[in-house]
């Protein structure tokens, strides 16, 4: 066997075993190979195991210097294409104004929509690229990117076009999602908006491949359950995957609706209770928790511990956005999921790799095994647990995407 590259001198090679999402107690089961090696050809893993079991040759050797190696992290929930900032919102909340009050007064998401629409396309791309570079350096090698700050159809498409253009400028795999964030306030405009979305916009997305999934924010001040049902039905009809922002402030039936539609994921879950936990326990839909939101907004943490104990599949994301989670590090999101959401280090690891990939419907990333993408991180230390232990990106020393090292 001749490999393009051989990663060697690995103290621990750590990955979630098997295929697909890990559920319940299985999230704690990790495959740890000591004194390991990984053979890479054409950007894919061709072999991995104990170094002494490798019988082939390699054109190039990569020395891990006795450090732990883990899969590249997968961020299943971000909003990195935006203009402007939300510093005024941040200051208001420190004075006691709630996030919902900020949103109701015309701030929050609506402010970001106005700023994003006023930002030139070239600047929007540059801003998003700088954010993604920060995220890659912290260990994210696959990143979902939502629209949702355009409001009008032309501006939503402009955001999705930015994601497509960004894919040519960064080595990370970017997964584009169309997010229905907020409907028009006027009932007549709202009805017209819904009709256009179902009859024209969603079918257009599917035709030109601008997005692989449709996401809907289901909340009292956003889309109703009935409206979300229309949007998700339209998405499924044209072959797009479904996702939903649910139970962030209140449980109004959004999670249950998304599960009925076979959603890849339901995200946020801060207000989820026993009924919602039970609804996720036996389905393929992945529950994505976003600890950056809990830290930044002071919301109750999503019940990841209870979800795992019930047998659900849980993933972790940054929710990187200017208003509720200005978090750019998946390694920090993993660490916060242990402190805030009650996950064990092994569960948080599975949630940030294999399960995060499943939340995006991806099968070729999130693990280190033959045929998988050679996306991996070399840590600073010899023990993988430094990753969820360290509060920040310092645990990650070197980042490789498809076998190529990301230069710092």
Describe this structure in words.
With 408 residues, this protein is α/β, with parallel strands linked by helices. It has two domains: 2-71 and 364-405, Urease, subunit C, domain 1 (Roll), CATH 2.30.40.10; 74-358, Metal-dependent hydrolases (TIM Barrel, Alpha-Beta Barrel). It has 15 helices and 15 strands. It has helices spanning 87-94, 99-104, 109-118, 121-137, 153-167, 187-208, 225-237, 254-260, 274-280, 291-297, 304-310, 330-341, 345-352, 354-358, 386-389, and strands at 2-15, 31-41, 44-50, 57-71, 73-75, 140-146, 173-180, 213-217, 241-246, 265-268, 286-289, 314-316, 376-379, 396-401, 404-405. The chain has an eight-stranded parallel sheet. A seven-stranded mixed sheet has the order 3-2-1-4-13-14-15, with no helix packed on it. Strand 7 (173-180), helix 6 (187-208) and strand 8 form a beta-alpha-beta unit. Helix 12 (330-341) crosses helix 13 (345-352). The protein is globular.
């Amino acid at each position: 066997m001749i490999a393009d590259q051989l990663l060697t001198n690995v103290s621990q090679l750590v990955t979630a075993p098997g295929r697909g999402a890990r559920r319940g107690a299985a999230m704690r089961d990790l495959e740890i190979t000591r004194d390991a090696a990984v053979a890479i050809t054409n950007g894919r893993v061709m072999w991995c195991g104990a170094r002494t079991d490798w019988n082939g040759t390699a054109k190039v050797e990569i020395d891990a210097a006795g450090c732990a190696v883990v899969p590249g992290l997968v961020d299943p929930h971000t909003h990195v294409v935006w203009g402007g900032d939300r510093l005024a919102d941040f200051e208001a909340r420190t004075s006691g104004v709630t996030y919902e009050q900020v949103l109701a007064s015309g701030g929050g998401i609506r402010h970001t929509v106005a700023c994003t629409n006023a930002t030139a396309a070239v600047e929007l791309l540059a801003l998003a690229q700088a954010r993604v570079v920060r995220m890659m350096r912290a260990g994210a090698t696959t990143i979902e990117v939502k629209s949702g700050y355009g409001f009008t159809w032309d501006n939503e498409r402009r955001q999705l076009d930015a994601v497509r253009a960004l894919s040519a400028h960064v080595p990370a795999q970017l997964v584009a999602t169309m997010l229905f964030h907020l409907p028009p306030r006027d009932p007549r405009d709202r009805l017209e908006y819904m009709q256009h979305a179902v009859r024209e916009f969603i079918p257009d997305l599917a035709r030109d491949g601008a997005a692989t999934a449709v996401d809907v924010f289901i909340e009292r001040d956003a889309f109703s359950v009935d409206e979300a049902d229309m949007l998700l039905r339209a998405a499924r009809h044209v072959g797009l995957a479904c996702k939903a922002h649910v139970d962030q402030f209140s449980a109004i039936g959004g999670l249950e609706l998304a599960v009925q539609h076979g959603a890849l994921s339901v995200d946020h879950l801060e207000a989820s209770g026993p009924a919602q936990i039970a609804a996720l326990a036996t389905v393929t839909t992945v529950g994505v928790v976003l600890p950056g939101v809990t830290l930044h907004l002071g919301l109750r943490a999503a019940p990841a511990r209870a979800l795992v104990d019930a047998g659900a599949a849980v993933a972790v994301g940054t929710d990187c956005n200017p208003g509720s989670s200005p978090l750019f590090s998946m390694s920090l999101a993993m660490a916060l999921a242990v402190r805030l959401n009650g996950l064990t280090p092994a569960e948080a690891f599975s949630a940030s790799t294999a399960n995060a990939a499943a939340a995006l419907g991806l099968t070729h990333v999130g693990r280190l095994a033959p045929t998988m993408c050679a996306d991996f991180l070399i840590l600073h230390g010899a023990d993988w647990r430094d990753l969820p232990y360290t509060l920040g990106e310092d645990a990650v020393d070197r980042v490789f995407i498809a076998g190529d090292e990301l230069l710092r």
